[in-house]
Amino acid sequence: MSSHHGHDHHDDLDPPRVEEVADKVFAYVQPDGTWWINNTGFIIGDEGVVAIDTCATERRTRRFLDNVTAITSEPLRVVVNTHHHGDHTHGNYLTHPAAIIGHDRCREEMIAGGIHTYEGIFGDPTPDWGDLELAPPMLTFSDHMHVHTGEMGIELHYIGGPAHTTNDIVAWLPEQRALFSGDLVFNGGTPFVLMGSVSGALTAIERLRTFDAEVIVPGHGPVCDLGVLDRLADYYRFVQEVAADAHRSGVAPLDAARETDLGDFAELTDAERIVGNLHRAIFEAGGGEPGARIDLAAAIGDMITFNGGRPLRCLA
Description:
- This protein has helices at 58-71, 86-89, 104-113, 198-209, 228-249, 253-259, 273-285, 296-306, and strands spanning 17-22, 25-29, 40-45, 48-52, 76-80, 99-103, 139-141, 144-149, 152-158, 169-173, 178-186, 215-220.
- It is of the alpha/beta class.
- The strands form 2 sheets. It has a 7-stranded mixed β-sheet. Strands 8-9-10-11-12 form a 5-stranded mixed β-sheet, with helices on one face.
- The longest helix has 22 residues, at 228-249.
């Protein structure tokens, strides 16, 4: 792997940190967890390293890989993608020749969408993406898969339906009771289900509870435990209530968001996601199928309008 130490794009952010959440199981936490700043992780076994996701930019992914090689000389053998979004997959190409694993629809979505950085929507200045190359999963599954590296066993489970996206999976280590949740869990940030389902996200939370994890590595934000799921469920039910009222009254998602008091949820980062979430929730309130495609451009445009017409904050 290449060695490359770049400076943070925004020096006011704390540097990424490696946390050993169980024996030979590591979370790689990137503050501050907002747009395009995700968490990854890695597991060290006798037959090599299994990484969970990559990062949004070339620089961030190289830094992640440097942190892995600083801890172990074992080769990177496998990369697991928890879903198709670019903040978790853009750096896949830098892990060659590791095998990349994801859900069937993760591969489909990545190939259909290509490298997408939503130019003009995020950041001022624009994030330094680097020289990105598309590298979708080469091994895919529909429901579950087991990955082994020596005595370390990692279970990959499709969450069962649309939630954050249509292709969310988790990586579960039953011996260590450690769960890599991907973006099914945001800790401290506003959850986002524009490309998935609000009702499905609530179902996914109940599925996450069944793992009875001692530690969760969320897709964004600090490492946490099962207690975070209650707050996520409260948020999704709140969105559904607002959406139900808006649907009955014929109020558009942007107007509904402007009229909504976020209450305790206002302290979550990236509050403009309420608009995208309401696009999805109002669609579902009207009988729309969870996970069905909706007008993403309109939803993102409304989020920018909600943000005062400014690009969305992105410090990647």
